[in-house]
Amino acid sequence: MIIKSKSIKSKKALENTIRYILTKENQKQLGFIINRYIKGDRNFDKQMKEAQDDLIKEQKLLEKRIKNMVSQFSENESKRTIERRNKNIAYHEIISFHKADTDKLPKKVLLKIARKYANERSPNSMVISTMHSDKDHLHIHNVISALEFATGKPVRLSRKEFKEVKIRMEQFQEKELGLTFSKVNHSKKKEAMLQLDIERELNLRGKQSERQELRDVLVEVFARVRTEQVDKREFEKAGIQFYSRAGKIVGVQGFKRRYRLKTLGFDPARISIEKEQKRMNELKKLKSRNDKDQEQER
User: What is the reported pTM?
Assistant: First the structure.
């Protein structure tokens, strides 16, 4: 699973976020709305279910429900014990899953994940969680207060602490959910992890990163030629441009950056430049002969 966090710094932004996660789609059929420490919300939930056949009444109740949530977040924020400039009043955090794991994520499992995340992330904060399926992959939206409920104590996680939450959720996913395609290795180095996060987000949208596209082309050429060593020109025909160091091929030139062959999963020794070297030697010999002929003519 991919977990992303966005700061909410104003009451208006909080209201807009809550309205977005509650009105994005028809939650009654596909999703859920759960919360923690939101007084009176069960009554709103009950009234909305009773008003399912009256769209106008249902929308009015939804607006009242949103106002109630915002009001209670604001009331809790008023208890803040430590004032800070540019403070966060809440967080909007999204948990995304690979589309290939959708069949393993029925409503009851998503509810379990939402509750687990709320407890791991901030066990004493106010929380609103809901599920969206408006894209080709499932994702859970969470709005989490930046203060503990009723105490006024700030809830701030360092990058390290947030990473530890992600790792615990990944362990929970592996142990109890058995999701194959939504795995993320949060123990890798920051730069590599950022690349993987970008790639996984693109994958969730049905797209590929440049690194993945280049790797697919390399695989295709190796599979087509079917020899241990493949001539460099075969890759160039497929649009691959290599870069070298000390006369040896070490990687592939992308549009904006370079990718080492080893990090793409290939041994540079498998790419042959013998024919190119042979041609270069022939050209050198030809040039040498031409130079000698010109000297003799003089």
Answer: 0.63
